[in-house]
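Homework-ish question, so no full write-ups if that breaks the rules, but can someone show me the predicted structure for this set?
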Amino acid sequence: MITEQEFLQNYNIGDYDRPSVTADVVIFRMRTVVGNSFRKDPKSILSVLLIRRGEHPFRNEWALPGGFVRMTETVEVCALREAQEETGVTPNALLYLGVFSAVDRDPRGRIISNAFTCILNGDATPTAGSDASDARWFDVSFREDPDGSCLIRLQSDEIGFDVHLSERRTAYGTAFTTEDRHPLAFDHASILATALKQLRERAARFEVIFDFLPAEFTLFALQNVQETLTGIPVAPANFRRKVADFVEETENFTQGAGHRPAKLYTRKNGTGHRPETERSKL
Amino acid sequence: MITEQEFLQNYNIGDYDRPSVTADVVIFRMRTVVGNSFRKDPKSILSVLLIRRGEHPFRNEWALPGGFVRMTETVEVCALREAQEETGVTPNALLYLGVFSAVDRDPRGRIISNAFTCILNGDATPTAGSDASDARWFDVSFREDPDGSCLIRLQSDEIGFDVHLSERRTAYGTAFTTEDRHPLAFDHASILATALKQLRERAARFEVIFDFLPAEFTLFALQNVQETLTGIPVAPANFRRKVADFVEETENFTQGAGHRPAKLYTRKNGTGHRPETERSKL
DNA sequence: TCAAAAGTGTTGAGTCTACACCCATGT
DNA sequence: ACATGGGTGTAGACTCAACACTTTTGA
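A: Not a homework solution, just the prediction itself:
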């Protein structure tokens, strides 16, 4: 009968076959579209950050940022690190999406991916890493049909493409499968669809909409974010009352718009997620 | 410039350090407690399956069933396999819980765990695997206090213990940390707490309560399950109306109880999750 | 007979939606 | 002046918790 200490001295984890583990990040922001009239407040368009792969496999195709989890970090820290490397800023929110472990999802071998959603506020210039030939914000539109089929439309200046997917019920929930050939590497189209669906559901519950905005914001801007994500318009008067429980007034007002100044609000504590600055907390 | 095929031929995934990956399963069932009066319908108690570790590390401590993910299976298939090996039956539900990847969570080395919740209906005799000295159903009680501290009480015949935890906000949501020394191996107390919290939230949304029952059930039994999970009592008349959207009537009735026969219902399609029988679908 | 669950009806409180309406602003 | 968003008020529809009440059964 050996002791636990002796057991651990003789245990060699390298004796067993094991997969590689990555963290992939779906980084979202809202792109502001200025109106044609001086009065109109800007509208928002959801954008996602994609990189163009500079190396095999899927060379020259578009992919989510991501990388291998180091032996000294958690998957969450890895995701945060990837997001920071890609954008130069710390995301306002880091949401776990799920694990993607299909045996053949990566031609290099057995690679299990943990996917995260990151949300930024304002602008951020993407940085193409050493293994990427380009990095861009793509405007996203996401349509789900009642029959389970859905469409993601991605657009960045002159580059644009559609991805058709269908949502199917699996043993452990629902998953998206792609319907056609498209320029997204690996199973990243499925991951993106899962992220968009999660984002839409959470936005309806007032959970992630604050993370797209600076600390102080108008209720109009907040409603704009929610409507962009859910696709469901709400009467402004009613939105203001529904959101009242989640926000706190400040003493500050907007200026310079062609209409009555709007009071600025902050998010009330207790809802939503803000990453700690110190990584050790992860 | 090499082709993708040449790249993949030269790529050796074993050149890089990588973690091991496991799937751990939190297997729940409802234990039926017969009343003292012939009229009283049985009450339910939530039970979780724990094994007593027969090998180092954490030898003789209680743990969740689980095992290493094989190179030929997804984490979901691994979880389903573990659950079947441990109970002999296929669970009614398999819910993904999350990834647990703290660097020091396993003394054998870097082991990342994917946790799943499994739900069985009726009875199942647990089987202790080759590396376990015992396998038992433990009655569970779970109390969450408003200040974030919570208590899990586990009881199986003569064995019983309490685990105190506190829920803390992290960058990516909330996580549970244990407050004291207790006989649960690894970080399995945190995983169990996460499972209980998820179960409670889903039960309130009518999402997992059906999986604890056979295909045909009475609304009373269903309410019993929901109340056990949420801890919130509801007036029967109101429960029946709230659940109406999720169930369908059958032509069958209960018999032999000391009261008016109850119509049996089935779950309406579209809610909840039932695993496919074929593993290939995963 | 009677305790227990099955099942229906109702009332009042609260919530949500749609709409009407006035306010404040900068060009 | 006026388009635009800020902001309040409110009637009707809807939802929900609480409670009263009747029905059906087996020992």
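Now go work out the reasoning yourself. Hint: Chain B touches chain A through 54 residues (CB under 8 Å).
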